[in-house]
Structures are given as C-alpha cells and as structure tokens.
Specification:
about 425 residues, 3 strands, single chain, mainly alpha, three-stranded antiparallel beta sheet, 15 helices
C-alpha cells in the first residue's frame, strides 16, 4: 500500500513537472536571441545571460564569477556537455535543456516538500501550481542563469529540514545539504549553516559546516585547473562592494516589495531605452506593486493573505520549530542583506521563492485551514495570467529601439 501511495505521489510530481517544462519552453521561445549576446548583458533585470550561457557551454570562457558562485562551473558545465553529447543541439538549446531539467526537479522537489510539511496530495498540487505560475519561476527558470540551480540548492536544505521533523537525519545528509547550499551562490550558505545549527549542538554544527566548506573549497581548487579565469570563492570579492547602498535601488518599501511580492506576482516592467545595437534594460525595482495587470493585483492580494496566514500557522506549530529556525534565519538574513546589497532585487527572486512558498504552505495551520489550498490555486491562476502577459510584453520591449538622439540614460517607460 505504501509503495502504491509513493507511486501516486511520483505520478503527480512528474505531471506537475511536465506542465512546468511546457510553460518554461513556451516562455523561453519568446525571448530574442540577441539577449544571449554581449549586447544583451544587463538587459534581463541586470542578469549577465551572455556570460552565464558561455560558462555553461564553454570551459575556456571567462569563469571569473566563480568568486561568488563557488563551484557553479564545475557543477553545471559537465551536465550541459554530457547531455549535449547524448542530445546534440546549439549552445542555447544545450544549456536550456539542463535549466529546464532543473525546473522539473525543482517542481517535483517542492511537491515533496509540501507533502513533508503535512499537506495532502490535492493541497500539495495547489501550492505547486502556485510555484509554477509564480514570477520567480517563470522569469528565472526560462533563461540560462545560475539562479535556478541556486534555488534548487535552497530547496534541498528545506527538504532536509522538513524530513528531520519526521525522522532523524544523519550528519552526512546535513553536510551534503550544507555543501549544496554553498555550491552555487556564496550567500545561500546561510541556509546550510542554519540547518546545522537547528539540528545539532553547536560543536557538531561547526564541524558539519567546516566539512561542507572544505568539500566545496577542494572542488573550487579543482575547478580552477579546468576552467579559464576561475576564481576561488574563499578569497573574497571586492567587486561586490560596488553594489552596496545604491540610491537607484529605491526605498526600503521598493526592496520589501521586490522580496515578498514580486517573486509571485511581478508588477509592470519599466524599460530603459537603449540605442541599437544594445537591447533595452528591463527593471521592476521601482515599479508600483500590482501594476502588471488586474489579474496581478488579485494574485497579490491572495498571496499576501496566504503569506500572513503562513506566518501565523508556522508560529503556532510547535512541532515545526526546527524547520521554522531554518526558514526564518535564511529568509530573514537574505532579506536583511538585500536591504543594502543589489540594484535589481528581482534578480534574486528564484532564491526567495522556495522560502516564501514554504512559509505560505503553513497557512493550512492558520484559521484559513482547508481554504488555504483553494486560495493558493486561485492565486496560481491569476499569477500565471499576469506573469505570462508581463513576460511576453517584456520580451517585446527588449527590442523596441530607442530613437537615434536618445542616450543610454533615457527615461523609464512603463508598459
């Protein structure tokens, strides 16, 4: 009976993942090829898609960003090369097949997380639908970037923390989860550290964390031997100071909206017109919340209710205090960091997404109770309508050329 139950869960997870693959492939097809050339750098919400794509497919490209993405190159490039050997295709096709595969694993993993958090199958499917319809998923799992993989590493930590509520977890699993959280983005190690602290006395937590760090450090040294210009993350990066306390990042409210609202329902995109051959720059940092469409406004209202109810539900669930520690520390420290760091907070939406959605799942333990999955499904529908429409409009705006007399510092235009 248990085997049949697990098979049914696996079928639901695969079905959800298949839907996600279709959505991502459809969205990716709408983006212009120029976005993945040097002319497209910074155009997609400050992402360096051209560099990220080259790093995924070419070991001899400039891998200098490994100073903040510790072993991203040695993790992602072999996957792309291996799949390409089995399934030939262009650089973009090869990279995106791996990113889409990451999206499939992410959706299946999130469904599993919902089940571990106590959701029934229908409720877990409803919250997973919200994940697929979210802006963080649609905008960052449809382009060749590291954020999808970083989000998956954070999801692994949450899965481990949730599993620990049901049964003891080994030091080995905690170490692997911690190393995974550090592997793609340095700051995501917050989750691995929080996991160790929540599950072990401080001395063992330090030992687990030290072993995880050493594992990633050794791989980073190996990576440097095989990938051109690869840097060692443990030597630091002074370049990141250039992104601290930027006035153009807006007010505290702008950052809070980008952290807690935009990953689910993206607002109207603002466009900084650029002269040819450069693509226009897209941003939502200063966008008015719920400005994307009427559907986005409804999705935002439903999402806000779920998020507040999730805080209530998690705070009142004493059994889940260890999980709450991991989730609270990771989300809280990430949010605090982005109050000061970064120009386009939406760039990190995929990292915030698993934490925010996991928190919303606890709305089922609030006074909303069984109404929460229905609200999640409704939010999923409205968010999907809004986010896919804004995505399509953003893709069109990328190639709307500026007049010849217009400089690169032209005004922002909303659509």
């Amino acid at each position: 009976m248990r085997r049949r139950s697990l098979a049914f869960d696996a079928l639901i997870a695969v079905t959800l993942g298949s839907v996600a693959l279709f959505v991502l492939a459809t969205l990716s097809s709408r983006l212009p090829g120029a976005l993945y050339t040097p002319d497209g750098n910074d155009a997609w919400f400050q992402a360096d898609l051209s560099r990220a794509l080259r790093n995924m497919v070419d070991a001899s490209s400039n891998h200098y960003r490994t100073k903040v993405h510790p072993i991203a190159s040695i993790t992602i490039h072999p996957l792309v090369a291996g799949l390409r050997a089995l399934w030939p295709g262009s650089d973009l096709q090869a990279a995106m097949r791996v990113v889409w595969g990451c999206g499939l694993l992410w959706v299946a993993g999130f469904y599993a997380l919902c089940r571990l958090l106590g959701s029934g199958r229908i409720a877990a499917a409803c919250f997973s639908a919200l994940a697929i319809g979210s802006a963080g998923f649609q905008f960052w799992f449809s382009v060749p970037e590291t954020y999808a993989f970083g989000s998956l590493s954070l999801l692994l930590v949450l899965l481990t923390a949730a599993l620990a509520v049901h049964r003891p977890v080994s030091d080995r699993l905690l170490t692997i989860a911690s190393a995974a959280s550090l592997s793609i983005t340095v700051t995501n190690w917050i989750a691995g550290l929080a996991l160790a602290i929540s599950q072990r006395p401080w001395r063992r937590a330090v030992r687990i964390s030290a072993i995880a760090f050493a594992m990633v450090a050794v791989l980073a040294v190996v990576q440097r031997s095989y990938y051109s210009f690869a840097k060692l993350f443990f030597l630091g990066s002074s370049e990141e100071l250039d992104y601290v306390n930027l006035s153009r990042a807006g007010s505290l409210f702008d950052k809070l909206a980008a952290i807690f609202w935009s990953p689910v329902s993206v607002p109207g995109v603002l466009t900084q017109l650029q002269p040819a051959p450069g693509l226009n720059f897209l941003t939502v940092q200063l966008s008015t919340p719920a400005s994307g469409s009427w559907a986005g406004a409804i999705a935002l209202a439903l999402w806000s209710l779920l998020l507040l109810a999730g805080v209530w539900g998690l705070a009142s669930a004493s059994r889940w205090r260890g999980f709450a520690m991991v989730l609270g520390l990771t989300l809280g420290i990430h949010a605090l960091m982005h109050f000061f760091y970064g120009e386009e907070t939406f760039l990190y939406a995929a990292h915030f997404l698993p934490m925010l959605l996991a928190l919303a799942v606890f709305a089922q333990r609030s006074p909303l109770g069984r109404l929460a999955p229905a609200l999640a499904l409704a939010a999923a529908g409205f968010a999907a309508v809004n986010n896919t429409a804004v995505f399509a409009a953003a893709a069109r705006q990328l190639v709307q050329r500026a007049p010849a007399a217009l400089s690169a510092a032209s005004e922002l235009h909303a659509f």
